[in-house]
Amino acid sequence: MEITAYRHRVQYYETDQMKVVHHSNYIRWFEEARTDFLEKSGFSYAWMEEQGIIIPVLSVSAEYKAMVHYGEDVLIKPTVTGFNGVKLLLSYEVRQEGTGELTTTGTSCHCFLDREYRPLRLKKEFPQVYMMFASCLEGQE
Amino acid sequence: MEITAYRHRVQYYETDQMKVVHHSNYIRWFEEARTDFLEKSGFSYAWMEEQGIIIPVLSVSAEYKAMVHYGEDVLIKPTVTGFNGVKLLLSYEVRQEGTGELTTTGTSCHCFLDREYRPLRLKKEFPQVYMMFASCLEGQE
Amino acid sequence: MEITAYRHRVQYYETDQMKVVHHSNYIRWFEEARTDFLEKSGFSYAWMEEQGIIIPVLSVSAEYKAMVHYGEDVLIKPTVTGFNGVKLLLSYEVRQEGTGELTTTGTSCHCFLDREYRPLRLKKEFPQVYMMFASCLEGQE
Amino acid sequence: MEITAYRHRVQYYETDQMKVVHHSNYIRWFEEARTDFLEKSGFSYAWMEEQGIIIPVLSVSAEYKAMVHYGEDVLIKPTVTGFNGVKLLLSYEVRQEGTGELTTTGTSCHCFLDREYRPLRLKKEFPQVYMMFASCLEGQE
After folding, report:
1. pLDDT tens by residue, D39-86
2. Can you tell me the distance from the alpha carbon of B116 to that of B130, in angstroms, rounded to the nearest whole number?
3. Quick check: B28 and C28 CB within 8 A?
4. Cα–Cα distance, B17 to D20 (Å, whole number)
5. N or C: which end of chain B has fewer CB within 10 A?
6. pTM for this model (two decimals)
7. Does A67 touch chain C (CB under 8 A)?
8. Residue A116 burial by CB count (10 A; 0-12/13-18/19+): exposed, middle or buried?
9. Nearest C-alpha of chain A: how many angstroms from B124?
10. How far, in Å, CA of D15 to CA of B13, rounded?
């Protein structure tokens, strides 16, 4: 499965007094793009939580290469860079919609837990979800 | 001019531990819808700020009638309920996209300032912006 | 019981490109002050949720009288303006710590629900909480 | 100069429907702690911006080791791990106030710009600020 970019319109409340988007918001945009990717995959995160699949964030990072301003639209493209059924690694690219300029890159690392916060054997208990993530990883290679 | 509804997808970071959207986010959604309305009117807020038109918020209110959850899409419809060139009154209705259920109502009140934060004579200095707001008010009546 | 003011230091991430605090944050400051008031009352909101007392927000409002900037400290003082065991009305005053200048006023309205989101008979089931709110109301009169 | 820890009370609006603090807020807590450190150093960030010293964020990272909940107080301790007058590296430790449990670690990288967003020769133009950061680095070694 190939992951398509997610479009975000910059909001006024996302700016700070440096007149650019506050750096904490990119972490939220990564989540928006992640959520969008899961929904397009057929396994929305809302559905996953209902099934008892919880996917907490173990770590995040972001690198700011160019500032983004109010009134601009950006495209956020997630890529599955690692998946073994236990951990999931994603990377993100944020680009200006018009020019394609790369403004920000980032990563997030996740694991899979059940409702009692115990590690989940995704391959055994939710093989179709396992297959989806695995197919994204193959698409990158 | 008739104002069309703005669509917002509820994000995970907008929820709180009551498992619903935190009430402060609706104030931000009103701003998203206001921004969208201005852009569709031909006078985006980014353009207005460039021209030296600042439209601060004097007051806001929100009434919560039904909870909104992660994974839901809402439509936010602003209406111009008052405008005299000096003050602008807007009201907002938030509805579930699927069912049309009214979840939230709200208002905001604004004035018009120039770059030095002095009251702006909109009718004289930006007659086209004045006309646009006036036409929205007429559309409601 | 008299409610004391809650001190909030303005954060950089609370500003917007107008170089003032974004108006949505005051709604969050009201919540901070409300939480602080409950904790000082001996019935923290975390404790209430554990007991099965949920206090959702039915409505909020804010009036912006003067702008607040990064690097300033404000005092937020909640007042119980209405309480009958079923509904709770609060008002808020935000003042500059140094000068005492009134920058913002606001209100919030709440009800009391149990874990199943049914109305809670506070006077019967949690008489000590009932008494605390009632004593705050008397303090105002 | 030794940097002392900054205390943050977890707010309700910082939680998400997993009933823990949303991961994006830690990036904001790092900023709160950074701001607090600068103020204690005698060179508040508000003062720096007035002088024309802008310190943008080039990158951030966070590692989540244990969840933090509403009603808890955390201590956030920044450490200067790198400084050469051109770039500033900070690391952060977030700990439960009561138990000292390490919940989160993180980093941020910054540069120094003037009002026109040109690189600033901190050592030459603001030697006292340069000395302060340098003394923090020495304190770590």
Report:
1. 999 999 999 999 999 999 999 999 999 999 999 999 999 999 999 999
2. 20
3. no
4. 7
5. C
6. 0.96
7. no
8. exposed
9. 26
10. 8
Give yes or no for A31 touching D (CB within 8 A).
yes
Contact C50, C115 (CB under 8 A): no
Query: Could you say which of D13, D19, D24 has the minimum Cβ distance to residue B22?
Result: D13
Set of chain C residues whose Cβ sits within 8 Å of the Cβ of B91: none
CB of A38 closer than 8 Å to CB of A112: no
pLDDT tens-place string over residues B121-135: 999 999 999 999 999
The single-letter code of the amino acid at D18 is M
For the stretch B30-80, pLDDT in tens is: 999 999 999 999 999 999 999 999 999 999 999 999 999 999 999 999 999
Contact status of C15 with chain A (Cβ, < 8 Å): yes
Cβ-Cβ pairs closer than 8 A, A with C, add up to: 28
ipTM of the complex: 0.95
Nearest to A62 by CA among A94, A97, A100: A94
E strand segments, chain A: 6-9, 57-64, 73-83, 87-96, 102-111
B82 Cα to chain A: minimum distance (Å)? 23
The answer to whether C16 faces chain B, any CB pair under 8 Å, is: no
Cβ–Cβ gap D61/A58 under 8 Å: no
